[in-house]
Every structure is written in C-alpha cells, then in structure tokens.
Backbone:
C-alpha cells in the first residue's frame, strides 16, 4: 500500500500508474500541493503536473479527456477551504467528493471542451468556495 507521500512523489515523478490516478489520488496531490503553496500557486503547479503526468502514462490532454481546468480550480478551492488535517479527512467530505461539482454545474456545461480548457462558471448553483483569485490566474493563462 502506497503512502500519501509516495503517491504524490510518484505522481510528480511520472511513476504513478494511470490506473492509480484516481479521484482520491487527485485529492492527495491537491492536499500535498497546498501544504507549501497558496491556491494561486497551486493552480499552475497542478496544471503542469497533471498534464505532464497524463502524457507520461498515455492519457491525451484533449478536448474530451485528460486535464480539466474547471475541475482543478474547483478542487483546489474546495480542498483549501476544507483545511483538512489529512487527505483521508477529505475522502469523507461531501465538498470534495467525486460528485460535488455536479451540485454546481450541469453535465452539459461541465463536460464541454471550454470547461476542460479554461474556467467555466457554474450554471446550476453558486459555489460555496472562493475561486476569484484562481479564476484570475486561469484567465491570464488562457489569454497568454
């Protein structure tokens, strides 16, 4: 059984098998990243790390699979706000669950190429986490 540190280290080094890049592993990577970075610093770090990891394990970053900017912003904000003492604590939080984004976005909006490429505002319900600084970073990246 891999520790959270091993999962994170293997993810960053490109050694985490694609089958182990689960929702829980994403939360571990986010939580570990936020231990020594602000949410604004975490976004470009995770964007680069996830896209690099995906390429390394054969997952294309396209308009229909791979990296998803809107979800990354949502989970960075959710994990940061949760202020959980460990990744395990996140696993049981509704705000960090796999289905949490669907409280705010319809599938028709969330799983579109524009939401994958950049920030897409929720179409169902207002967010209960602060994302404005992250969205500003995302918009600067999109316009570059």
Residues:
């Amino acid at each position: 059984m891999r520790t959270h540190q091993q999962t994170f280290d293997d993810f960053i080094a490109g050694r985490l098998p694609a089958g182990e890049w689960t929702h829980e592993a994403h939360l571990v990577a986010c939580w570990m990243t936020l231990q020594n970075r602000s949410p604004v610093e975490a976004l470009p770090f995770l964007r680069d790390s996830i896209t690099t990891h995906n390429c390394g394990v054969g997952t294309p970053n396209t308009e229909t699979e791979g990296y998803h900017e809107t979800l990354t912003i949502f989970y960075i904000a959710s994990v940061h706000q949760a202020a959980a003492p460990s990744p395990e604590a996140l696993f049981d939080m509704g705000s960090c669950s796999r289905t949490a984004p669907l409280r705010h976005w319809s599938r028709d909006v969330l799983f579109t190429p524009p939401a994958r490429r950049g920030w897409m505002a929720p179409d169902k319900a207002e967010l209960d986490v602060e994302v404005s600084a992250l969205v500003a970073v995302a918009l600067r990246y999109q316009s570059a």
Observations:
- Residues 39-56 form the longest helix (18 residues).
- Residues 68 and 116 are 4 Å apart (CA to CA).
- The helical segments are 4-13, 23-33, 39-56, 69-82, 87-91, 107-110, 113-117, 132-143.
